[in-house]
Amino acid sequence: MIEVASLTKHYGSRTAVSDLTFTVRPGRVTGFLGPNGAGKSTTMRMILGLDRPTRGTATVTGRRCADFADPLREVGALLDAGAIHGGRTARNHLLQLAQSNRLTAARVDEVLGLVGLAAAANHRVKGFSLGMRQRLGIAAALLGDPPVLILDEPVNGLDPEGIHWIRHLLRDLAEEGRTVLVSSHLMSEMALSADHLIVIGKGRLLADMPMAAFVDRYSRQAVRVATPHPADLEPLLKGADLEYEVVESAPDRGVFQVRDARAATIGDLAAGAGVPLHELFTQRASLEDAYLTLTADSTEYRTGADAQRPRDGA
Ligand SMILES: Nc1ncnc2c1ncn2[C@@H]1O[C@H](COP(=O)(O)OP(=O)(O)OP(=O)(O)O)[C@@H](O)[C@H]1O
């Protein structure tokens, strides 16, 4: 379990993290989301005792990380995979970590195999790709078989096989009863691996809830409907006061996306007026939609195209 209470961090006049309180529970994967600069890495660093909070506390299984005698046995972390000393071999890098935490060389070989780096164990890290460094970072996090894992962007640089592997690894670790906190900007990946979400923006807590509840609460359902007679369907949608967008428009094929509607309502409307339909289905709301809606006002760094994106629900 990770417990964060009133956690605050100022860098000079800049507030990176502001009065954050949340609990990360064991047995599930908790996704830690937020736009660039939201304060995720700073929060993780404070939990790990690598940064001192300006105010508040962060504990892992009830204690401050700085107080652990063998930290790797208590909490495994992946923060910046690029920061590993390049002159060492992968095995030597892990051996050194193992020795300082009273772990065996056999465990080093075990985790090298687990992350798929056995064949590269005696190669110097400076020749490693980003994905290989990432795997090595994950090996270090797993080395002490810890009950708590904190992983900052673990899929960064991984190939599709690696992404698939980490997804299953996270789920397995949670199923074993461990506490897993993982940040990622890849919403599609998060949607597949996380059970619970903590979302922050500009250092503040925006949401702390199960994945399904988050998507339900912050995204809007839409129904997609296609007809060969758009000129007959559109007045029906207007007449029923439904909010819609025209996705495709040709005289013999119109596709509409109808907001906050039920497929049955639209099907009945069309049937009542004898308008044929070629498609009618409810579009599943995505985590990405929900996330963009919630964080629209908390995004500091926005691209031109995104800056013009209409805000849902605004
Ligand atoms: N050592 C530091 N000195 C000064 N400011 C810092 C320092 N570390 C982080 N910050 C600032 O704190 C804020 C939060 O940064 P942080 O890296 O925690 O965000 P993040 O959510 O991890 O972002 P990203 O998704 O881009 O990695 C940012 O405004 C950042 O510029």
Automatic annotation (TrEMBL):
<feature type="domain" description="ABC transporter">
    <location>
        <begin position="2"/>
        <end position="227"/>
    </location>
</feature>
<keyword id="KW-0547">Nucleotide-binding</keyword>
<keyword id="KW-0813">Transport</keyword>
<comment type="similarity">
    <text>Belongs to the ABC transporter superfamily.</text>
</comment>
<dbReference type="Pfam" id="PF00005">
    <property type="entry name" value="ABC_tran"/>
</dbReference>
<dbReference type="InterPro" id="IPR017871">
    <property type="entry name" value="ABC_transporter-like_CS"/>
</dbReference>
<dbReference type="InterPro" id="IPR027417">
    <property type="entry name" value="P-loop_NTPase"/>
</dbReference>
<dbReference type="InterPro" id="IPR003593">
    <property type="entry name" value="AAA+_ATPase"/>
</dbReference>
<protein>
    <submittedName>
        <fullName>ABC transporter ATP-binding protein</fullName>
    </submittedName>
</protein>
<keyword id="KW-0067">ATP-binding</keyword>
<dbReference type="GO" id="GO:0005524">
    <property type="term" value="F:ATP binding"/>
</dbReference>
<dbReference type="InterPro" id="IPR003439">
    <property type="entry name" value="ABC_transporter-like_ATP-bd"/>
</dbReference>
